[in-house]
Amino acid sequence: MCLSLLGGVFLFVGGPDSTSPRSFQRLWDSGHIVLFFLWASLLTLTIKQRPGVKRHRLVVSLVLFSICLGAGIELIQVMIGRTFSWGDVMRDVIGTLLAVAVFLRKTGEGRDVPLVMAWILIGVCLMVEFTAFARVASDEVLASLQFPVLSNFETPFEADRWGKNSLGRSRDVSKNGDHSLKVRLLTTPYSGVGLTYFPEDWRGFKWLTMGLYKQSPGELELHVRVHDAIHTRTGNRFRDRYNETFTVHQGWNDITVETNRIRKAPADREMDMKHIQGLGIFAMNLDDEEVIYIDDVALTGRAPVR
């Protein structure tokens, strides 16, 4: 009982933020399954003590309970500045179904085909959860091993480090190796991608380098931005981060940024090079859509740690 109440508190207090490792975010999300398993187990024991309760009514009641309570929790989270997640509601339902299936099996009421199908469904859902966690955890290990290379797109899950706005890894062109990241730039005011998940200590390197490939003829202005943890906590002000514009041409373009320029970029302080949290590449107000490719993003040139 105490554990389930404590878990309810954690739905609203603590937890990962936008800068937390993806593995921690996935584990935290999976806590919905555990919490609703505990809550549904307590409710199942309470309801089954009442005479005449039919199994199908028990299952339907608990599933509706988990959907309504889960959606209600997500709405409250929106009110306190978080986001609504249907994925979390689905995890709530999975935890509830798992509790019902375990209880019915223990009471000997669950040896028929519907319960077997429920176990299969639960198993598939849990496997999806585990696979998602294994995917991000393995890429975090690879990112650590690759550093100071930030992305060369030669491993399967590197595109996930760049958010959801890219078209994924591509074999169309590459600067080195077999793959690059393909990005479609739209005609919206801002369009691009951002590297969010990477080792954040950039001290001891002289340059940030990358290859940018422009598919079509002509010139294109691309903006590169870098920010640290302080920038994230203090309002994301334009003058509090590194911003620079580069003109790229058809074919491969080598972009090199001296890390001292990044360090000195904020107007009122120095960038915290030990806690870099984001690298963005984007275009602004394009007349027509463009396709670019990104490859070999890395820190190079050892320098004394400041």
From TrEMBL:
Classification via InterPro entries: Galactose-bd-like_sf, VanZ-like
A Pfam cross-reference name: VanZ
Transmembrane stretches, start-end: 31-47, 59-80, 116-137
Domain VanZ-like: 30-104
Entry keyword annotation includes Membrane: yes
Keywords associated with the record: Membrane, Transmembrane, Transmembrane helix
Keyword Translocase: no
NCBIfam families, A to Z: vanZ_1 (NF037970)
Name of the protein: VanZ-like domain-containing protein
Species name: Desulfoluna limicola
